[in-house]
Amino acid sequence: MYVRKISLKNYRNIERLDLELKDGINIFYGQNAQGKTNLLESIYIGATGRSHRTHKDKELINFDENESHIRLEVQKNTIFDKIDIHLKNNSKKGIAINGIPINKLGELFGYLNVVIFSPEDLSLIKQGPQERRKFIDMELCQISNIYYYNLCQYYKILKQRNSLLKKLAKDNSLKDTLFIWDSQLVNFGCKIIKERCLFIEKLNSISQKIHKQITNNKEHLELKYKPSVLANEFKEKLEKNIEKDIFYTSTSYGPHKDDMLFFINNINARDFGSQGQQRTASLSTKLAEIQLIKEEKGILPVLLLDDVLSELDKDRQKFLIKNIKNLQVIITCTGVEDVLKNLDEKCNIFNVSNGKIITNSN
Ligand SMILES: Nc1ncnc2c1ncn2[C@@H]1O[C@H](COP(=O)(O)OP(=O)(O)OP(=O)(O)O)[C@@H](O)[C@H]1O
Ligand SMILES: [Mg+2]
């Protein structure tokens, strides 16, 4: 799978862009604040309908404009798809696939699969559980449309349950209606727990092998799912904690509180791992993500590397480059020489300057 063309209009600091990309390595280099991450972000939005940096669509539209367009042409074996995203200042964004508008974001997933790797991802282990949940969800949504549906339903019901809890804090007479939300929350919650469990098991077995290679067999990595509650205990936990939930006006147990743990040689890497160990484990996990998409979807995703090579030492850089053959990679960096040093294949090189992109060489 690869993005063969990208067109942008009034997207952040990029006024207009029509650019052909190569199936292989594409490098965008330039000084700080020129538009490199903006470009990469627009590809991510084409795949997921959302930015990895903000949930406010308004921020994606050029400051002086009211609308913005992203168009991606995606080649998947012999199939060709066109993804259009129309961002508007005053209304919901419009998404069309091959010219036909879609109503639900979930319908977009799968047309373009991406794995994004930015300096923040190197801190996946150190960050809070919310970031790790986001990582699990974004990956699973791209793999399974049903997961996305269940997740949306779960959060919708959770919101309704929490707003009822607020009412109950003032007026207890509606307490009997809580069970309606609880049974639905358990229904969708259990589906999410099961899918997450299976996903982390698969990711674990792939990342373990990768991590062994990076560390020359010195480290054994283990990814473990830490559900807030087990599926078969969810209903009971909700019932037991009703008074507590009413007091805090929020739901204390459920997949919205899940986490994922990383163990290196049986030691919790979040608490005891060195920074280097944590970063290497994140790298192994990211590389495992690529392979898992290949296994689940039968196709390699597009890899978006945002300024991440400069964050890795030489050995890790080499390992990463060696392991990203056969897929389309979009790399952003400030110094192109450092990246080219490790590459032995031909790549597209673009210079990004003040929102404009200039093709350098082939
Ligand atoms: N909505 C917007 N309209 C116009 N310009 C914007 C908008 N949003 C962001 N920008 C500008 O886009 C510029 C480029 O941002 P970007 O994050 O792509 O930089 P970059 O080239 O990746 O830089 P770095 O190397 O520091 O990561 C920034 O100066 C920012 O102010
Ligand atoms: Mg950047």
Descriptive overview:
The protein has 362 residues and is an alpha/beta fold. The chain folds into two domains: 176 residues, P-loop containing nucleotide triphosphate hydrolases (Rossmann fold); 175 residues, RecF/RecN/SMC, N-terminal domain (Glutathione S-transferase Yfyf (Class Pi), Chain A, domain 2, Up-down Bundle), CATH 1.20.1050.90. The chain contains ten helices and 15 strands. The strands form three sheets. The chain has a six-stranded antiparallel sheet, covered by helices on one side. A six-stranded mixed sheet has the order 8-12-13-3-14-15, sandwiched between helices. α2 packs across α3, α3 crosses α4 and α3 packs across α6. The longest helix is centred in the middle third of the chain and has 37 residues. The radius of gyration is 22 Å and the shape is globular. It starts with a strand and ends with a strand. The structure holds adenosine-5'-triphosphate and magnesium ion. The site of adenosine-5'-triphosphate has 17 residues, from α1.
Short note summarizing the structure:
With 362 residues, the chain is α/β, with parallel strands linked by helices. The chain folds into two domains: 176 residues, Rossmann fold (3-Layer(aba) Sandwich), CATH 3.40.50.300; 175 residues, RecF/RecN/SMC, N-terminal domain (Glutathione S-transferase Yfyf (Class Pi), Chain A, domain 2, Up-down Bundle). It contains ten helices and 15 strands.
